[in-house]
Design brief:
- The protein folds into two domains: about 40-190, Beta-Lactamase, CATH 3.30.450.40; about 200-355, Alpha-Beta Plaits, CATH 3.30.70.
- Helices cover about 50% and strands about 20% of the residues.
- It contains eleven helices and twelve strands.
- Helix 1 (about 1-40) runs antiparallel to helix 2 (about 40-55).
- It is elongated.
């Protein structure tokens, strides 16, 4: 009888340990779920998924593959300096089928032994894995990507074990990714250009009115530079839009480095930029424009495939307070715009000063 009691007590202790372990796992997941739901940006959300998920659930590798045919996610992240460690873990594809073939028609999580032949696309440079879980991410019955979990333990992910929990996890992460994407788009529709991270045209249109009013009140000169990258369409046509985006970001960085802290830069549209220079006469504005022109011409622009491109910029200059024909915001903008057009038709890689 005492032996039976001891066996019963041992079984009870084992059940209590399992229950306690399950409670801890449940609490751990609840904390993780709250972190996902409270993420205020794509960057913060991806940090939780790619960094904290691995550590919190003791995994060897976690990657995220997103279907991005319109380059939407990549544009939204374009102005953010993402960690180098994400290079092989935050992945993109424009082909839905390249993700869809991992799942059955029901699109349930797929748990299996790791196969380099099958899973190398999902886990670049991670051939030490032994078992994997591939979770479909869907919104409104549409596949948007996959969350990929890898372990060095062959027993960690076995077929049909724990799929209900993983289905719930995939649903939460799918909703969080879509919500974060929508929020980023809403923010970017505000006053910042999503690609370059500088002010957009809406911001410029508001700010230039304020600057003109201030300049007229203080009777100080206000200069405006219109910048148009020469033959930019050729870059997109010959090298693709990703190369064009890379050039725009590098050019923006050059503009920002040369500008003074009081100057205001905005992307006016496409390859056109505008700079407002408060309390700046035309001769000083011309010197700034010349530094920009020369730096652009002397820079080797790097594009995604490692190629180097050369580029020039045409610049139009107009100054309020020095010319009688410029007395309003509209006249300042129009004159600077006409000046950059004159720079282009006169040979490009020039500065045209509207006099």
């Amino acid at each position: 009888m005492p032996h039976d009691v001891e066996m019963l007590q041992a079984k009870l202790d084992a059940l209590l340990r399992i229950a306690k372990s399950n409670d801890q796992k449940h609490a751990n997941f609840q904390e993780y779920e709250l972190q996902l739901l409270n993420s205020s940006s794509l960057y913060e959300l991806f940090t939780v998924i790619l960094e904290q998920h691995r550590d919190r659930f003791q995994l060897s590798n976690v990657t995220l593959l997103l279907i991005d045919p319109e380059y939407d996610f990549q544009r939204l992240l374009g102005s953010i300096s993402t960690p180098v460690t994400w290079q092989d873990r935050l992945l993109f594809t424009d082909n839905e089928q390249s993700v869809n073939h991992y799942f059955s028609v029901l699109r349930k999580p797929r748990l299996s032994r790791y196969s380099e032949q099958l899973h190398a696309r999902l886990f670049p440079n991670a051939n030490s894995l032994q078992s994997v879980a591939i979770l479909p991410l869907t919104r409104q019955n549409k596949l948007i990507g996959s969350l990929n979990l890898g372990s060095r333990s062959p027993e960690r992910f076995q077929a049909n074990i724990g799929t209900q929990f993983l289905q719930h996890l995939a649903a939460v992460i799918s909703a969080c990714i879509e919500n974060a994407r929508l929020q980023e788009n809403i923010k970017q529709l505000g006053l910042l250009d999503p690609l370059t991270g500088v002010n957009n045209r809406r911001f410029f249109d508001q700010r230039v009115v304020e600057e003109v009013s201030l300049a007229q009140r203080n009777q100080t000169p206000l200069s405006c530079l219109f910048l148009d990258l020469d033959h930019f369409k050729r870059i997109n046509d010959n090298h693709g839009h990703q190369a064009g985006d890379a050039v725009l970001k590098q050019a923006t960085s050059i503009f920002s480095d040369i500008m003074r802290t009081t100057d205001v830069l905005a992307r006016y549209g496409g390859e056109e930029f505008v700079i407002i220079l408060a309390d700046t006469p035309s001769n000083i504005a011309f010197e700034i424009a010349e530094r920009i022109r020369k730096t652009i011409a002397d820079t080797a622009f790097k594009i995604n495939n490692g190629d180097i491109l050369n580029l020039t910029v045409s610049i139009g200059l107009a100054t309020l307070g020095e010319h009688k024909q410029i007395t309003t915001t509209q006249q300042l903008i129009h004159t600077a715009d006409q000046a950059v057009y004159a720079a282009k038709i006169s040979g490009r890689n020039k500065i045209h000063h509207a006099i």
